[in-house]
Write a structure and sequence with these properties.
The complex is a heterodimer. By secondary structure, chain A is an alpha+beta fold. Chain A folds into 2 domains: 103-291, Oxidoreductase, molybdopterin-binding domain (Sulfite Oxidase, Chain A, domain 2, Alpha-Beta Complex); 300-421, Immunoglobulin-like, CATH 2.60.40.650. Chain A is 13% helix and 29% strand. Chain A has helices at residues 3-24, 138-141, 171-175, 188-195, 220-226, 389-396; strands at residues 75-76, 87-90, 108-110, 123-128, 134-137, 147-154, 178-187, 203-208, 218-219, 228-233, 236-237, 247-249, 262-268, 283-284, 290-292, 300-305, 316-325, 331-337, 345-346, 348-350, 359-367, 372-380, 409-412, 418-423. A 5-stranded mixed β-sheet of chain A has the order 5-4-13-8-9. In chain A, strands 6, 7, 10, 11 and 12 form a 5-stranded antiparallel β-sheet that branches. In chain A, strand 10 (228-233) and strand 11 form a beta hairpin. The two termini of chain A are 21 Å apart. Residues 1-34 of chain A have low confidence and may be disordered. Chain B has helices spanning 2-25, 39-45, 63-73, 75-78, 114-124, 135-148, 206-209; strands at 35-36, 60-62, 158-160, 175-177, 202-205. Chain B has a two-stranded antiparallel ribbon with strand order 2-3. Chain B is extended, with a radius of gyration of 28 Å. Chain B is mainly alpha-helical. Chain B folds into 2 domains: 2-36; 44-174, Cytochrome c-like domain (Cytochrome Bc1 Complex, Chain D, domain 2, Orthogonal Bundle). Chain B contains 7 helices and 5 strands. Classes of the chains: A alpha+beta, B mainly alpha. Chains A and B meet through helix 1, strand 1, strand 4, strand 5 and helix 4 of A and strand 1, helix 2, helix 5, strand 4 and strand 5 of B. Strand 15 of chain A pairs parallel with strand 4 of chain B, so a sheet runs across the interface.
Chain lengths: 425, 220
C-alpha cells in the first residue's frame, strides 16, 4: 500500500470523526468540579484581592507554589518497597506542562536515603588507570569549562509495574519516574584529562557518597561523548534528593547510572558488575537468561491529560497533552489514537525539540461524551517506533521489569473518568 | 606591529609563569585544576571489588563465624536463613525459578559474581550502618551466604582473598549482552495509521486491582 493511500484513509477517518463529534458534542456536561468559588469574588462584585494589600516582597524569600496547588506533589507507592529510604516517589506528570520539570517535583529514587553533604566537605576523587590520581573540590569543578543541557532522566523501572498488565491508576504512577531539567556542569572528558587516562582505560566506575555508595560501570566511550558532572539544575543548585552538590549526567541512559552525590570515579580496563548492574537493572527473559548492560532508554510516550488523575470535566473542546522522549536522539513524530490503536492521527509538537529530552505534544479535539481508548505512539529520529506492550512481551516474556516503553492506553468513560487499561493487540 | 609583539611577549610570560606553577605544584592537567590525591586518601575511599579480584582486601572468615555475624547484623531484614522478611530481598534459594511464573532472584539463583556480594556488603550493608564491617567479617558473611545457598556444604568453609576466585556462582553464564538494536528495533517501519486492528477489547483494568495510592482523582 502506498503512503498516499494511508494518508488519504487517515484524513478521511479524521474528518468523519470530527464531524461526528461536532454534531453532538457542544452541549457540555455539567462540570463535576464546577469552579464554584465565592460569589463575593465574582462579577459584578469587586473581589477581595482587588481591594486589600497583599504580602510584601520579603514575605517569601524563596517562592513556593500557590496554596491552591498543594495537591501537586510527588507521591510514594508504599507497598512497592520495604522502606522509604530505599524507594521511589513519582513526578505528578498529569499536573505539568511544557518540557521542564520543576526541581521540587523531579522524581526521586534513593537506595539509602538522601545524603546531606556540606559543599565544603565535598570532594571528587579520580583514581585507577590514570597518570595521577586527583582530588577536586566543588570550587575546582566550577572553574572547568561548563555546559548547560536539557535532558530527560528516566528510571529503567519506570512503568515496570505495568509489565504484565494495567496496574496503577494514574500516569504519575505508571510513568512518573521521569523528569527533565536543564543541567549545568563539567564534561567528564575535562575532568579525566586533568588526571590523564592510561592507554588501557576502557571503563569508569562512578560512585556515590551516600550510604549506598551507589556504583555502576560506565563505558569510557559514552563518558567522553556526552556525560558530565552537574552541579546545577534549572539554574539553581541541585536539590539534596537529586545529588547535591554534584551528580553524574548520562544522557539517554537509565537513571540509575546518573550517580548522585558523586564522590569518586575509578578508571579501569573492564566492568565491575556491581550489584545494581547484575542483581538489579538486568532484564530477565522468558527462557531464564538475562540481558545485562541495557543502558539506553528506548523511545516512549504517554498522554498526561486526560489521564486517570486528570479526568474530563466537560464535553466539547479539550486539549490532549502528552510527553515523548528517546534515549537515541530527538523525537520526530507523535501519533495519537482515540480508538485503542485502530486509527492514528499525528499530534502537534510544541516547544523545543532537543535530543534525549522530553518533548511536548498536543492534540486539540472536541469530545462528544462517548467512551474513548486513548493511546500515543512516538517515533524518534532513528526511525524507531514505540512498540505495544504485546510486542515487547513477545520478545522479552512476562518476567521483565525494566525498560517497559510500551504504548499506554487510557480508557475515557462516559462520565469523563479515566482508567488505566490494557487492550488487545 | 609593536602591539602584536607586546601581545606575543605577554603570552610567553604567561606561559612561563604557568609552567613554573605547574612544575612547582606538580600539577599535570592541562587546566591545572585540582590536586594529586595521596595514596592514603585513595586507600580510604577505594572500596570497590571486581570479578577478577581487584580490590579484595587481605582477610578471611568462615561460614560459622559468618552465621553469628549474620544473625546479629543482617537477619532482621534478610531473615535467619536469608529468606527475606517482608519486602526485604531474599539472599538464598530460588534455584530453577528464573524461567517460571515467579522468578526469585537471590545470590545463589541469580547473581553472576561473588565479588558483587563482597563489594555491595562492603559499601552499603548493613542497611543504616554502612561501611561498619571489617574485611574479615565481610569474608565470613559472604561464606555464610554461600552456605545458605548450598554452594558450600561445610560450615568450616573459610573464604579469603586467596581462594575467593575459586568460587563460581551458578548463574554466571546466563547473562547476555544487550541485543536491542537487533531485536526490538527490528520493528522499525512506517507505522500503520488506519484500520490497524479489527476489534479492540479491554484485557485488563487497573481499577480492578485497586492498588493505587489514594484515589485516582485530583485532590480537591
Amino acid at each position: 500500500m502506498s503512503n498516499n493511500k494511508v494518508n488519504k484513509a487517515t484524513r478521511r477517518g479524521f474528518l468523519a470523526g470530527t464531524a461526528g463529534v461536532i454534531g453532538t458534542g457542544l452541549a457540555g456536561l455539567p462540570g463535576r468540579r464546577a469552579a464554584a468559588g465565592s460569589a463575593a469574588n465574582l462579577p459584578p462584585n469587586i473581589p477581595d484581592a482587588s481591594k486589600a494589600l497583599g504580602d510584601g516582597v520579603d514575605a517569601r524569600a524563596y517562592g513556593s507554589p500557590s496554596e491552591f496547588e498543594k495537591h501537586v506533589v510527588r507521591r510514594n507507592v508504599a507497598w512497592l518497597t520495604a522502606t522509604t529510604e530505599s524507594s521511589v516517589n513519582f513526578t505528578p506528570l498529569h499536573e505539568l506542562d511544557g518540557i521542564v520539570t520543576p526541581n521540587g517535583l523531579c522524581f526521586e529514587r534513593h537506595h539509602s536515603g538522601v545524603a546531606e553533604i556540606d559543599p565544603a566537605d565535598y570532594r571528587l576523587m579520580i583514581n585507577g588507570l590514570v597518570d595521577k590520581p586527583m582530588i577536586f573540590t566543588l570550587d575546582d569543578l566550577k572553574r572547568f569549562p561548563r555546559v548547560s543541557k536539557f535532558y530527560f532522566l528516566e528510571c529503567a523501572a519506570n512503568s515496570g509495574m505495568e509489565w504484565r498488565g494495567a496496574q496503577l491508576n494514574g500516569c504519575q504512577f505508571t510513568h512518573g519516574m521521569v523528569s527533565c531539567v536543564q543541567y549545568t556542569g563539567v564534561p567528564l572528558k575535562h575532568i579525566l584529562d586533568e588526571a590523564g587516562l592510561k592507554s588501557n582505560a576502557k571503563w569508569l566506575m562512578p560512585e556515590g557518597g551516600d550510604a549506598a555508595g551507589m556504583n555502576r560501570s560506565l563505558p569510557l566511550d559514552k563518558a567522553l561523548e556526552d556525560c558530565f558532572i552537574a552541579f546545577k539544575m534549572n539554574g539553581e543548585a541541585l536539590r539534596p534528593g537529586q545529588g547535591y552538590p554534584a551528580r553524574l549526567v548520562v544522557p539517554g541512559w537509565e537513571g540509575n547510572m546518573w550517580v548522585k552525590w558523586i564522590r569518586r570515579i575509578e578508571v579501569g580496563d573492564q566492568p565491575w558488575h556491581t550489584r545494581e548492574e547484575t542483581s538489579k537493572y538486568t532484564d530477565l527473559m522468558a527462557d531464564g537468561s538475562s540481558r545485562r548492560f541495557t543502558w539506553i532508554m528506548d523511545a516512549k510516550s504517554v498522554i498526561t491529560s486526560p489521564s486517570p488523575q486528570a479526568p474530563l470535566e466537560n464535553k466539547g473542546r479539550q486539549v490532549l497533552s502528552g510527553l515523548a522522549w528517546s534515549g537515541r536522539g530527538k523525537i520526530q513524530r507523535v501519533d495519537v489514537s482515540f480508538d485503542g490503536g485502530k486509527n492514528w492521527r499525528t499530534a502537534r509538537i510544541d516547544g523545543p525539540v532537543f535530543s534525549k529530552c522530553l518533548t511536548r505534544f498536543y492534540y486539540d479535539f472536541a469530545w462528544d461524551g462517548s467512551p474513548m481508548l486513548l493511546q500515543s505512539r512516538c517515533i524518534d529520529e532513528t526511525g524507531y517506533v514505540q512498540p505495544s506492550k504485546h510486542e515487547l512481551r513477545r520478545v522479552r516474556g512476562e518476567n521483565s521489569i525494566y525498560h517497559n516503553n510500551g504504548i499506554q492506553t487510557w480508557h475515557v468513560m462516559k462520565s469523563g473518568e479515566v482508567e488505566n487499561v490494557e487492550v488487545s493487540g | 606591529m609593536l602591539k602584536s609583539v607586546a601581545r606575543v611577549s605577554q603570552f610567553l610570560l604567561a606561559a612561563l609563569i604557568w609552567l613554573f606553577l605547574v612544575e612547582s605544584t606538580g600539577l599535570a592537567g592541562p587546566l591545572a585544576l585540582g590536586r594529586e590525591a595521596t595514596p592514603k586518601e585513595v586507600a580510604g575511599w577505594d572500596i570497590d571489588v571486581r570479578p577478577d579480584g581487584q580490590g579484595l582486601p587481605p582477610g578471611k572468615g568462615d561460614a560459622r563465624q559468618g552465621e553469628e555475624i549474620f544473625q546479629e547484623r543482617c537477619a532482621a531484614c534478610h531473615g535467619e536463613f536469608g529468606e527475606g522478611l517482608d519486602r526485604w530481598p531474599p539472599l538464598a534459594g530460588g534455584f530453577e525459578s528464573l524461567a517460571g511464573d515467579n522468578p526469585v532472584k537471590t545470590v545463589g539463583s541469580y547473581w553472576p559474581y561473588l565479588s558483587t556480594v563482597f563489594d555491595y556488603i562492603r559499601r552499603a550493608m548493613p542497611f543504616g550502618d554502612a561501611q561498619s564491617l571489617t574485611p574479615d567479617e565481610i569474608y565470613a558473611i559472604t561464606a555464610y551466604i554461600l552456605y545458605l545457598n548450598d554452594l558450600v556444604q561445610d560450615e568450616e568453609f573459610e573464604l579469603s582473598r586467596q581462594n575467593f576466585l575459586s568460587v563460581k556462582l551458578p548463574n554466571e553464564t546466563n547473562f547476555i549482552p544487550d541485543p536491542r538494536p537487533l531485536t526490538e528495533l527490528r520493528q522499525q517501519r512506517e507505522p500503520c495509521m488506519a484500520n490497524c486492528k479489527s476489534a479492540v477489547r479491554i484485557l485488563s483494568r487497573a481499577r480492578v486491582l485497586d492498588v493505587t495510592p489514594e484515589s485516582g482523582k485530583k485532590s480537591e
